[in-house]
Amino acid sequence: MSNPNEVVESGRRDSEFFNGMTLEQKQQWAKDIIKRMMQATGVYEKKGLAQMIGCHQNMPSNWLQKGSVPWKVVYICHRETGASLDWLYNGVEPAVVISPQLKRQLKTVVTELLELAQREKLIAQLGEDNFEAIAIQTTKEMIELLTTP
Questions:
Q1: Could you say which of 57, 69, 85, 110 would form a disulfide bridge with 50 (CB–CB 3.0 to 4.6 Å)?
Q2: What whole-number distance in Å separates Cα of residue 25 and Cα of residue 20?
């Protein structure tokens, strides 16, 4: 049996994989898909999933028995929840891609939060008046360092 995540040139999963599965394996695969769809939708019963997807409440049980979840249903769940199709269908967690612009934004926000946390910690240790005096002195020292040729 081949790997379920192998992809043929057309972009479809290898049909030999599915043809080589036993009914029990197909049922487990369907169970896993349904479980992930329930996670994505935040429902804890198949009945709630069916309602969210817009199908008859017995359909998830039928999918389990057949060992097959219709692609359209997985797509509806993806569209409604934003969950990755690859994760819903295959259980493969999506890779997180962070653009350079987002990295810069994150760095700015994290830096600001760290500075704020450090300021609050110093105020707690020194008191508001002492902190302000130290901040003014530190600022003056930094200005001198920056303006010295």
A1: 57
A2: 9
Question: Using one digit for the tens of pLDDT, what is the confidence trace for 46-82?
Answer: 888 899 888 899 999 999 999 989 999 999 999 988 8
Residue 38 lies in a domain: yes
HEC letters along 15-62:
HHHHHCCCHHHHHHHHHHHHHHHHHHHCCCCHHHHHHHHCCCCCHHHH
Q: Let me know whether 84 and 104 are in one domain.
A: no
Note if the pTM is more than 0.70: no
Pick the more confident residue, 6 or 67: 67
Eight-class DSSP state of 92: P
- Co-location of 68 and 131 in the same domain: no
What token pair was written down for 111? 């830096």
Q: What is the tally of structural domains in the chain? A: 2
Three-state DSSP at 88 gives helix
The letter for the amino acid at 105 is Q
Q: Rounded to an integer, what distance in angstroms lies between the CA atom of residue 115 and that of residue 123?
A: 12
Length of the chain: 149
